[in-house]
TrEMBL record:
The protein, known as: carbonic anhydrase
Stretches for region Disordered: 344-378
Enzyme class: lyase
Enzyme Commission number, as recorded: 4.2.1.1
Organism listed in the record: Gasterosteus aculeatus aculeatus
Length: 378
């Protein structure tokens, strides 16, 4: 798999088609895996092949629709067509254990093919889920997506592929409509999140890269936030090499909570190094920096202004309220105007009689001027 991806990256760099070059690549790959160049694909988050170097080996990482992004809520666009996402079969885990392994970059839990998500233009079938985290404990970053510049402590990604259009995830991951990933932001609180212990309890069995364990199957939906109706949606990419721009992202607005102890365990238990390696390297800070949004729009399934979607009842109430207000205002204005109009002729008449009476002397006119009539003072 890695070799295949490596070859594809090489072929892309050389501006050649993957499939057409298969025979040549088979030969090339053997050279590449034995040559020092093989080091190039052992990418990391920091160091020689850290994230700023990824694009030298995986050209897609320099694309203009990369992930993760910072979701600036005032710049999102409300889309009423974004209906709540429906997890399919997430709770029907069956009796077959899940396979969980340390990839050297994260912990991966493979998901059965009957799990999927509805609510997108195609049916997407679940493949795997994995996590991203930091190293400094609570409030020190760790999530990939940020909201208004704010990081969460960790992030869960549930990866699905478009099984209506493509035969498998390897094919789908290279297509613009190939993948759908759910992003769940994780923060720390006082309470232990029992659902996450279904994963965390077994991390000690896969401390080294490439180690694998079977874990009891569990209800995957319990890892998700309760509110699946409020989320951000945008077109992006894999957040790791080869960074293919094939992901329809759904980042939920509601964050899930785990305890400080749970976060600490996640941050300190795994190694990115293999069991046979002399130097142990902790697997930490495995999150990519946010990428420019460029031409893209992030859509919100809910209205950003009110903070919540308005029901038809609420809309009716607002319309009636505004109408009543307008009618009331009209009545008041009309009353005032009427009052002024009925008093004006009276005033004019009074002034006229005064005029006639005081006309002879201009001084008299001046004397009258400074004292204004009670009506004008209103
Ligand atoms: C995925 O599907 C393609 C096209 O049918 C096939 O060539 C490839 O071998 C499949 N890959 C895997 C990993 O099953
Ligand atoms: C993603 O890209 C497709 C194809 O260009 C487009 O139809 C769709 O509206 C985009 N979705 C989002 C959320 O921007």
């Amino acid at each position: 798999m890695l070799t295949f991806i490596h070859c594809c990256a090489w072929a892309r760099r050389a501006n050649m088609g993957c499939l057409g070059l298969f025979a040549l690549l088979t030969l090339q790959c053997f050279q590449w895996t034995t040559a020092p160049a093989a080091e190039e694909v052992s990418w990391t988050y920091y160091g020689l092949v850290g994230q700023s170097e990824w694009s030298q080996y995986f050209p897609d990482c320099a694309g203009t629709s990369q992930s993760p992004v910072d979701v600036i809520t005032t710049q999102t666009k409300y889309d009423p067509n974004l209906t709540p996402l429906t997890p399919l079969g997430y709770s029907q885990h069956g009796n077959k254990p899940f396979t969980m392994y340390n990839s050297g970059h994260t912990v991966v839990i493979e998901l059965p093919e009957w799990m999927g998500i509805g609510g997108l233009p195609w049916l997407f079938t679940a493949v795997q889920m994995h996590l991203h985290w930091g190293s400094g404990g609570p409030s020190h970053g760790g999530s990939e997506h940020t909201i208004n510049g704010l990081s969460a402590d960790a992030e869960l990604h549930v990866v699905h592929y478009n099984s209506e259009l493509y035969p498998n995830v390897s094919t789908a991951m290279t297509q613009s409509d190939g993948l759908a990933v759910l992003g769940i932001l994780i923060v720390t609180g006082e309470e232990t999140n029992a659902a996450f212990n279904n994963i965390l309890n077994y991390l000690s069995r896969i401390r080294h890269a490439d180690q694998k364990v079977f874990i009891p199957a569990f209800d995957v939906q319990t890892l998700l936030p309760t509110d699946l109706g409020r989320y951000y949606r945008y077109n992006g990419s894999l957040t790791t090499p080869p960074c293919y721009q094939s992901v329809t992202w759904t980042v939920f607005n509601e964050r899930v909570q785990i305890s400080k102890a749970q976060l600490l365990k996640l941050e300190t238990i795994l190694y990115s190094s293999k069991a046979k390696d002399a130097d142990r390297m902790l697997l930490q800070d495995n999150y990519r920096a946010t990428q420019p949004i460029n031409h893209r729009v992030a859509f919100a399934s809910f209205s950003a202004e009110s903070g919540k979607e308005l029901s038809s009842g609420e809309v009716t109430a607002i319309v009636i309220g505004v109408m009543c207000g307008c009618v009331g205002l009209a009545v008041i204005v009309r009353f005032i105007v009427k009052t002024i109009r009925t008093k004006e002729p009276e005033k004019e008449r009074k002034e006229k009689t005064q005029d006639v009476a005081l006309k002879p002397t201009p001084e008299a006119e001046k004397r009258e001027e400074p004292s204004p009539s009670p009506q004008t003072e209103l």
